[in-house]
Amino acid sequence: MKDTLDFPFSPFAMFMLFLLVMSNVVATYSQAYEIEIPRNKTLWVYGYLQYLSSFNPLLMDGDHQGWDTYIMYEPMFGTNAANGELINWLGEDIRWANSTTIEVVLRDGIYWVKMTPSGPVYERPITSEDAQYSYLLYGAFDESPDFCDYMASFRDRVGSISNFEIVNDRVFRVHIKPEYANSSVVWRSLTRSFLILPKHVWTEIVANFSNVLLFKNDWMEPAMPTEWKVASGMYLPYYYRNGVPSHTIIKRNENWWGINVFGKEPAPEYIGFITDYGSMLPWECLEMGELDWCRLFIPWLDETMEKNPNIHTYLSNQPYFADDKAKLMVPNHRKWPIGQPWLNKAITSVLNYTTFSELALCGFLKAPSPLLIPADDAVARELLNITIEEKYRVPCDPTGAYGKALLDQYCFVGPDGRWYTDDGPSQDYFALYPDHFTIEDALPDYPGINVPLGPWTLLDWAGWTDVNSIDLIACSAITNALNVDITPLWRMWEVTDIMNENTYDFVHYVMNKGFNSDMYERYTELFTGPAGASRHYGDYRNVQLTALISSLETAPAGSAEQQNIANQIQEIVGSNLPIIPMAGNPEWYIYYDKYWVGWPNQNNPLLPCSAYASSAQDANLHALLLGLRIRTPDLNGDGVVDILDITLAATAFGAVPRDDRWNSIADVNGDRVIDIVDLTTIAIHFGETFQY
């Protein structure tokens, strides 16, 4: 991450600053935030995409929307990428009625609230018409406005809004074109976390704005009509401040429908999203208890957690973070012999993935998949055949012997000591890549077409210490172990332009489709459509692969046909290795549990939300917030301190965070060890009840 994340103070200065701030923490909050909000009732969040006072859900991936918008409005469903399970939210059920019809049932008792001067009040039920209209605004139908295109693939397969059949207020059916029967794309679009909007409000908003994407939906703006302040979520806008610290505060919706459905409300009364802490650094704020949840890279994480008993990560031991995306070394397949399977496998063999992990100072990396799917992406890995994955896993040989043996089959060492190809590309290559770069014979006195291996560059964004360090180590290994000259080429934002123009040699890139991507979507992004920065990385062309990816979408879910297609796809990707795995890419997620417990971790497998919540992830956000509760002696959160709580603490007695028996909720006083003090505290409160 950015170089500015280095510690600016000595340990002594940090300690003195810690004492100074902690002694004045209450005054700091009341002075900085200008309003009185109790610290023990507030969840403070930092490091997330946040635009103050902007709450337009149509900008879910845009530049003017706050992360808190995803809590104001709610989705039908979502998918927990940690285990692939469906998250039911506004939707009670979704099923295939037949191969061309999906039926959705909304929960009973869900409703909109309107914000009035006296607080949120019941407005009307959430209905199938609201869902249909929301999908219309997101671009799901031929009749959709042209300002949103998030559901373009859904639109291709469904067509007219008339194919979104409203059966009644709680039931709707989506009818799919026959040629797309069993479409996984339509299913995924319906189970993605697209926010549902109140039709009666947004028809009016759209009618009043020539460009509705410029509408901020700012509920704190005095000119905002009360009739437009309608949402369904567990939190609603409350306050924002453009200053230092800059932040938005949202307040719990005391009239939220979920209280009746789930039997409880989210524990924090307020959530504050901090966008600018000035000179303060995130780990300082965590250490001082000013933050509860941070989504940023923190160097020296081992030492930070060792010294601060209330700071934790998703996994308590290395790797500390969930691996939800793939860092890729993308070869430009138009520049032969770059991208050839023998070259890609030779390069892969000398990459030290353990070193990649260690240099990032967090231990995030898990074994990279030769089939280019992160280990923690449960949804995308549903169809992965482990036997095929292992069959094509490239052995690690940092000596270069394995890689050089591969190169020796297709190359020879020329008079200058460099590798040269024995001959040029096949006729199949010329047929697939008529737009290839010029191929010149560098040694005309030798037989064949002799193209040198290198010098090449590895393109990347400048200024990010972990990925730039990976670049240096990768280039050094390739150069030294294989005698192939490759050097880093760091640029700023023009990297995107270079990728779109397809003029690079190799590029270090993160494939980030977000949660909820199945295998069809992941391989579609990697290998189909026009090449560029956003998809089809490297412009790898394989007609058979493209056809298989297309057929995978319409094979019945869970069928032998679907698995057979997936196996063929994996055989092609594994044998050709069109893109080189560089590393896992983690979901940074550090939390402070002095005030709040119930955070997702390996014992509570819900993958946290990224800085770019987007339509694929906000159901995870809702589930995460509903799972939090105040730290009390009621360890299991059932509302009473009883023998079950004592048993939980006794089972973990003597444990510290890195022990297998560690259970953070049993550390009642937060001193990073479960001991007699914790058991005594539970015993003192035995029989007491707690209202969450």
What does it look like?
The protein has 23 helices and 27 strands. The chain is globular. The longest helix is centred in the C-terminal third of the chain and has 18 residues, at 465-482. It has a seven-stranded mixed β-sheet with strand order 13-14-15-1-16-25-17. Strands 22-21-23-18-24 form a five-stranded mixed β-sheet. Residues 1-32 have low confidence and may be disordered. Helices cover 31% and strands 19% of the residues. Helix 22 (643-651) runs antiparallel to helix 23 (676-684). Among the domains are: 74-201, Alpha-Beta Complex (Dipeptide-binding Protein, domain 1), CATH 3.90.76.10; 323-586, Dipeptide-binding Protein, Domain 3 (Dipeptide-binding Protein, domain 3); 632-692, Dockerin domain (Type 1 dockerin domain, Orthogonal Bundle). A hairpin with a 2-residue loop joins strand 7 (111-116) and strand 8 (119-125). With 692 residues, it is an alpha+beta fold.
Count of helices?
Answer: 23
Determine the CATH topology of the domain at 323-586.
Answer: Dipeptide-binding Protein, domain 3
Name the quaternary structure: single chain
Ends: how far apart? 38 Å
The proportion of residues forming helix, as a percent range, comes to: 25-40%
Shape: globular
Radius of gyration: 27 Å
Average pLDDT, rounded to a whole number, is: 88
Quantity of strands, as a count? 27
In order across it, which strands form the biggest sheet?
13-14-15-1-16-25-17
